[in-house]
Amino acid sequence: MLHRSLSRLGLGVVLVLVQACARTPVEQAPAPAPEAAPEITLNLPSQQPECKCPEQSASSDYTFLERGYGLLAVNEYDEAVEYFRRYLRLESSAEADWEAEVAITFVMTLPDSPIFDPKEARKRFRDLNDIDWQSMQLHEQTLLLRHSLESFLIMSRRVKELRETNEALQQDLEKREEAIKRLRELTLGQTGSAP
């Protein structure tokens, strides 16, 4: 019985110790203090370089012009021209007039356009080039259209020269063929008359 009592007593002591351990909070090591992040230095210039972009006039509203360009990009030529004409009517400046006229002239060079007229486009472009457009603050896409028109004019001139050269060569070839034909006739006529 003593043995049993000691067993119970030992078991009781173990249970008390387990309970005591369960109730006593475990001390945690203090969390390390966060380290200060190193300061980042950027290699940026102290002064921002000046933008060399052309300043757009505050008085110009490019809404209609840009809508026209958007429609031009998706081959909606009639609507694009309408927006260019609205821009021409609503904006009252030399720049706006020139930009709208360049855009409409460009549409005239496109074979699928309902206002396709390359001869008139060449004339209009020459007139537009006579204006001092280089001193104007123009929309970037207008300048691209102007460069395209200039290329069109150069290529158009080259095609005209090649056609003229071709016509001259064709006439020269016809004259040579006629001369060869006469020479044959004379040669065959003389050999045919000999005994």
UniProtKB/TrEMBL annotation:
<protein>
    <submittedName>
        <fullName>Uncharacterized protein</fullName>
    </submittedName>
</protein>
<keyword id="KW-0802">TPR repeat</keyword>
<feature type="repeat" description="TPR">
    <location>
        <begin position="61"/>
        <end position="94"/>
    </location>
</feature>
<dbReference type="InterPro" id="IPR019734">
    <property type="entry name" value="TPR_rpt"/>
</dbReference>
<feature type="coiled-coil region">
    <location>
        <begin position="152"/>
        <end position="186"/>
    </location>
</feature>
<keyword id="KW-0175">Coiled coil</keyword>
